[in-house]
Design brief:
- The protein is α+β, with helices and mostly antiparallel strands.
- The chain has a single domain (68-282), classed as Fumarylacetoacetate hydrolase, domain 2 (Alpha-Beta Complex).
- It has helices at 40-47, 81-86, 159-164, 170-173, 220-230, and strands spanning 2-6, 13-17, 23-25, 73-77, 96-100, 105-106, 112-113, 121-122, 125-131, 147-154, 157-158, 179-180, 186-187, 198-203, 206-212, 238-240, 262-267, 271-278.
- The strands form five sheets. The protein has a six-stranded mixed beta sheet with strand order 5-4-16-9-10-13, covered by helices on one side.
- A hairpin with a 5-residue loop joins strand 2 and strand 3 (23-25).
- It is globular and about 55 Å long.
Length: 287
């Protein structure tokens, strides 16, 4: 089962993709892909549906983020050894956490606007973990029971904002369009081994990142348990679990995205995102 939200920004409807890659409408079954719809019982109920019995919109159009009502996006920095090494930074003794604004959310094929004054726009493909069962002080043995599902995420980062604009990395992570999720949400029951996935990202057709989730310094059960020591996790919260080597900042010399560049990111079994970098004014009224 692949859960999606389709339609124009702010008007997305819940749906699923059937075995023939047809979008089926779920709005008669759940209000949206959010909150209670992400609970284990709800996901099991959705999995029992006959997709052929659901309406197929004739022109589903754009795919948006595959869930809504996201309370927080929690990023994990330096969670792959090779990425820490390419950035010439010491390996962390504990997970390095940061928050990414929910206003950065976008769809899996939406354009990415270059921020005004942006000059060092970087890419980071990441496995996104979506929480389905709330919890706090979660034990590692129980951590994966709190996961609703997984999707592709890209943590776009403006490195100048991140490192040279007052020392708060949050600034470089949160511009509009910097948090695409999707193309769909795959329930955890369909991903028996999330530690065995391959992540790849290319820029203008040239491979830049190629890693495996097995190489995480802090694997998912440890990450979920660790985060829950500092904040409660709610249904719909998203954890971006880190990125492997190959980011622009790690190149010699550093190489960053420019207007007109295209980015493609894939994770095994979770689909592919495709984006184009555009001028800020192409999507926003800058007056």
């Amino acid at each position: 089962m692949r859960l999606v939200r389709y339609g124009e920004p702010g008007r997305e409807r819940p749906g699923l993709i059937d075995a023939s890659d047809t979008v089926r409408d779920l709005s008669g079954v759940v209000p949206d892909i959010a909150g209670e719809a992400l609970s284990p019982d709800s996901l099991a109920r959705l999995a029992r549906l006959d997709p052929a019995a659901l309406p197929a919109p004739p022109n589903p159009g754009r795919l948006g983020p595959p869930l809504t009502g996201i309370g927080k996006i929690i990023g994990v920095g330096l969670n792959y050894r090779d990425h820490a090494e390419e950035c010439r930074l010491p390996l962390p003794s504990e997970p390095t956490l940061f928050l990414k604004a929910t206003s950065a959310l976008s769809g899996p094929h939406d354009d990415v606007p270059m921020p005004l004054d942006g000059r060092d726009l970087d890419w980071e493909v990441e496995l996104a973990v979506v929480i389905g069962r709330p919890g706090v002080y979660i034990g590692e043995r129980d951590a994966l029971d709190h996961v609703a599902g997984y999707c592709v995420g890209i943590d776009f980062s403006e490195r100048d904002f991140q490192f040279r604009r007052g020392g708060q990395g949050f600034k470089g992570k949160s511009a509009d369009g910097f948090g695409p999720l999707g193309p769909w949400l795959v329930p955890s029951s369909a991903v028996p081994d999330p530690s065995g996935l391959s992540l790849r990202l290319s820029v203008n057709g040239e491979k830049r990142q190629d890693g495996r989730t097995a190489d995480m310094l802090f694997p998912m059960p440890q990450l979920i348990a660790y985060v829950s020591r500092f904040m409660s996790l709610q249904a719909g919260d998203v954890i971006l679990t880190g990125t492997p080597a190959g980011v622009g900042m790690g190149q010699t010399p550093p190489t960053y995205l420019r207007v007109g560049d295209t980015i493609e990111a894939t994770i095994d079994g979770l689909g592919t995102q495709r984006h184009r970098v555009v001028e800020y004014g192409a999507l926003h009224d800058t007056r």
